[in-house]
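Example record for the data management plan.
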Amino acid sequence: MKLLDILIDDLNLADERFRFSYHFDLKKLLISIKKIGLTSPVLVVKRKGLPYVVLSGWKRIFACLELSQVSISAFLIEEEDDSRAFFLSLYENWASRDFNILEKAEILLKLNGLMKDERKIVREFFPLLDIPANLSYFDIFLKIAHLDPSWKKVIFQKKMPLHLAQFLTEFNRDDRERLLPLILPLNMNKLKQFIEDLHELSKKTGESLKAILSTPEILSVSRSDNLSSLQKSEKIRSLVRTKRYPTLSSWKKSFETSIKKAQLSKEVDFDSPSFYEDGQFSVTFSLHDKEAFQKRIVKLEELGADESLFSLFEGFVDE
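Corresponding structural encoding:
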């Protein structure tokens, strides 16, 4: 292994045979290189074409390019066998950091091409990647590796958990294209709920995502010129949840109507069960003196005598 100072132009960046990281944030690395320089050389090997093929260190290379550096420190690895070279890259990264879902998927895709022995990969590399040693996970990660770049970017940016990424692979490509603009404005919690609702609704009804998102009510929202992207996503998410939980959605409307009729003061909040999925109601009120406290108690007694409100407790069901 030789330490060299290599011109970045002499790196064959088009040859990605050993690459498994495609999405990363350079902010911290850029600051580090500006302050103290590059302290960890990249790894390269010689192959046909340009003199050097990157074995490990893509993030460092792109950071140096962004800083307009023309050269970079590199260890030249004398290894002609691609399989052994890839293992060097894998273990060099494994020793210094954790792999995200997308990196694990790319690693397994590369290993599958190099070894062509799924059971051996499961046995030897799944423990290394913190993946349960079950062959079914191989198929899941390979499908994630074949997702479109736009979806991989979303998975990375939203830090999407494995089960959501798996749900995405179960939708066809056209359906994923329809879904993408709807989930982009949502935060992670709402995105998670939306995808789970769509997945379960599709399983429950046997409808494709296209059919679910093509109802007149949803199309009306999608085509509206008066709503922002976020407003459209929120409304469609709500409509899908209503379709998944029709009884609970009806109960929710009844609850909100009853609370409105009760004419509660601003100092009293009567909250339904979280997400309408458990049986815990809560009542909170604020006060500033004894007289206000007594008024709240009277109001609560009035609520307890309201049969229309009380019926909501009896009508609460879990779908």
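Summary line stored alongside the record: The chain has a mean pLDDT of 85.
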